[in-house]
Amino acid sequence: MSSSAEAARPDGTTSGTDTLRTFVERMSLALHERGWGRMPARVYVALLCDQRDQLTARQLTEILGVSAAAISSAVNQLIDSGLVERDAVPGSRQEHYRLSPGGILDAVLRKQEAYPHLAELADEGVGVLGAASPGAERLGELAEFVRFMDGELKEIGERWKERRRS
């Protein structure tokens, strides 16, 4: 998105590029308000919306108007979370980034894998505190909720996969 693409037209309207950039900012802000890091959200939405299947760090800096360091950090976080994959291009020093094939569902399900451990730790805490204490009661409720959520997320994931197949 060059600066000429961002300028208002003589009739006062903005280009489609401006509209897209505005959407990317609004969508990433919504993700940020739900716990995402600001820059990873911007990079993720840019990758979602771009017409190309993959983008280089340079292309992401141009789209978002940020530094290469900001892109690098955000991309690494997205890779760690399973939302983005890095592809090396033979004969090129540039790496390309693309959305992971499983998308957000696979990333959510990967995070879900930690829930049973959290429930086990809460159970351990109940033993440490003694079952009659208020803290043990809260930990027990946490363990019960985590197990419930784990089961529900697995069912949601299966229903989503079935829906996508049909």
Provide a short characterization of the protein structure.
The chain has 166 residues and is mostly helical.
- Largest β sheet strand count, sense and barrel closure: 3 strands, antiparallel
- The helical percent reads 55-70%
Task: Please identify the structural class as seen in this structure.
Answer: mainly alpha
- Fold-level CATH name of the largest domain: Arc Repressor Mutant, subunit A
Please work out how many helical segments DSSP would assign: 8
The termini sit apart by: 38 Å
Strand order of the largest sheet: 1-3-2
* H and E order: HHHEHHEEHHH
Count of domain modules: 2
CATH class of the largest domain: Mainly Alpha
| Rg, nearest Å | 21 Å
Please indicate the percent range of residues in DSSP E strands (runs of 2 or more).
5-15%
Keywords: DNA-binding, Transcription, Transcription regulation
Organism: Sporichthya brevicatena
InterPro entries: ArsR-like_HTH, HTH-GbsR_regulator, HTH_MarR-typ, WH-like_DNA-bd_sf, WH_DNA-bd_sf
Pfam family, one: MarR_2
Give the SSE map.
Layout: H1 3-6, H2 16-32, H3 38-49, E1 55-56, H4 57-64, H5 68-81, E2 84-88, E3 95-99, H6 103-112, H7 115-129, H8 134-165
Antiparallel strand pairs: 1-3, 2-3
Helix pairs in contact: 2-3, 3-5, 4-5, 7-8
